[in-house]
Structures are given as structure tokens and as C-alpha cells.
TrEMBL record:
InterPro entries: Beta-PGM-like (IPR051600), HAD-like_sf (IPR036412), HAD-SF_hydro_IA (IPR006439), HAD_sf (IPR023214), PGP-like_dom2 (IPR023198). Keywords: Hydrolase, Magnesium, Metal-binding. Gene3D superfamilies: HAD superfamily/HAD-like, Putative phosphatase, domain 2. It comes from the Bacteria. SUPFAM superfamilies: HAD-like (SSF56784). Belongs to the HAD-like hydrolase superfamily. CbbY/CbbZ/Gph/YieH family. GO terms for molecular function: hydrolase activity; metal ion binding. The keyword Nucleotide-binding does not apply. It comes from Streptomyces oceani. NCBIfam families: HAD-SF-IA-v3 (TIGR01509). Its cofactor is Mg(2+). This is Hydrolase.
Length: 215
């Protein structure tokens, strides 16, 4: 293998949560008087933390979201996850293969620790991630596209950035990985490939990733 650590994004890479989460987000923002379509949510917020939602709404409107915005959004998102969330096709097999090859991996997500664990638990993927393998934007000051989260994950795992590869599905995540000095591959099952053009390569099926990692 060419790398000493594989860092996975969670939403849209390990769990098929982006359609559910962005549908909930678009609906809630619209309900609050900030008309947002599903396409708008994907374009503006996919791959970012909830702090990004607050920042963009404030910049665009001069208004603050309600104090209970985060808790209500998370509650609605968790309800959707429990009803519909599935793992990304082929992810379980991929993680088993990495474990068999003794290739270290971890997860670094813009989501909260609670949301990450709800998603992994519901999809049966939590067995692949002990506490030392899970990193959230809550752990750092700046979320994606800043490099902080990926740098924090690599440092915690004891691997220099240049020996890490990131698996991402959002432009924000790709930008963050590059800023962190890491190679990055874009998963384009849902994201148009041209939006991840800065990545070292793209793939649309998890079965293709081992070959990319092997170089």
C-alpha cells in the first residue's frame, strides 16, 4: 500500500446520509423563512458543519438562526436516519479488507460526535470504528474547508500528512484534504465529478478503491 492511513469522510462516503440530511436541512431552513431547495442545500452546505449553515445564513440575511436550531435539526435528521439510513454500498466489505490488510483507517467528519455515532450504529458500521478512530468537527476550531480536522485526525493517529489519503465526496472536503497536505480521492456516486476535479482521482464504486490505494 502507498499510504499509512486512510481517512474517510462519513456522510455520503460511509453512510448514504447526504440525501436525507440535506432534504431535512432544506425543509427546516425554508420553514424558518430562508427558502432553500434540496439542490441549494447540496451546493451550499454538503460537507460542511452546522456552523457553516449559521455563518452563511447570517452573511446572506443579517439574521441569526434560532438558538434551538441545532437541536431541532439534529432531532429531525436522526429521525430520518432511523427510518431510512443505509450504509454506502460496498463499504462493509471495504472496511473488512482494510482490517485484513492491517492498513490503518479512521473517520473525520463535519458532523457532531452524536450524529456520527447514530449513523454508524444504525447502519451496522460502528463495529469498525472504536473511539480512537472517530474525529468530528467538534474537536477543532475550524471545520472544512480548513485543514484542521484532517490534521487533527492524522496527528491523533500518529501519521504524517504526506502519508495519509482522504476519501471525500464534497468540494469542501477535497479542499480541506489538499490544504492539509494529503492526497485525496473523490467518491462521485452522488457528486458530479467536475465538482471534485481537484482530487487526485475519482471513483463511483467502493470496489474500485482498493486498487486506487494500492497505486
Amino acid at each position: 500500500m502507498r499510504y499509512d492511513l486512510v481517512i474517510f469522510d462519513n456522510d455520503g462516503v460511509l453512510v448514504d446520509s447526504e440525501p436525507l440530511a440535506n432534504r431535512v436541512l432544506a425543509g427546516y431552513l425554508t420553514e424558518l423563512g430562508h427558502p432553500t431547495s434540496y439542490t441549494d442545500a447540496l451546493r451550499d452546505y454538503m460537507g460542511g458543519s452546522v456552523r457553516r449553515v449559521h455563518d452563511i445564513i447570517r452573511e446572506r440575511t443579517g439574521r441569526h438562526l434560532p438558538a434551538d436550531f441545532d437541536s431541532i435539526l439534529h432531532s429531525r435528521t436522526f429521525d430520518a436516519f432511523r427510518a431510512e439510513l443505509q450504509p454506502v454500498n460496498g463499504v462493509s466489505e471495504l472496511l473488512r479488507g482494510l482490517a485484513a490488510d492491517a492498513l490503518p483507517y479512521c473517520l473525520a467528519s463535519s458532523s457532531s460526535h452524536e450524529r456520527i455515532r447514530v449513523a454508524l450504529q444504525h447502519t451496522g458500521l460502528l463495529e469498525y470504528f472504536d473511539e480512537q478512530r472517530i474525529f468530528s468537527s467538534e474537536d477543532v476550531r475550524r471545520g472544512k474547508p480548513a485543514p484542521d480536522l484532517f490534521q487533527h485526525a492524522a496527528g491523533s493517529m500518529g501519521v504524517p500528512p504526506e502519508r495519509c489519503v482522504v476519501i471525500e465526496d464534497s468540494p469542501l472536503g477535497v479542499q480541506a484534504a489538499i490544504a492539509a497536505g494529503m492526497e485525496v480521492y473523490g467518491y462521485v456516486a452522488m457528486t458530479p465529478p467536475d465538482r471534485l476535479a481537484q482530487a487526485s482521482g475519482v471513483f463511483s464504486d467502493m470496489s474500485a478503491l482498493p486498487e486506487l490505494l494500492a497505486g
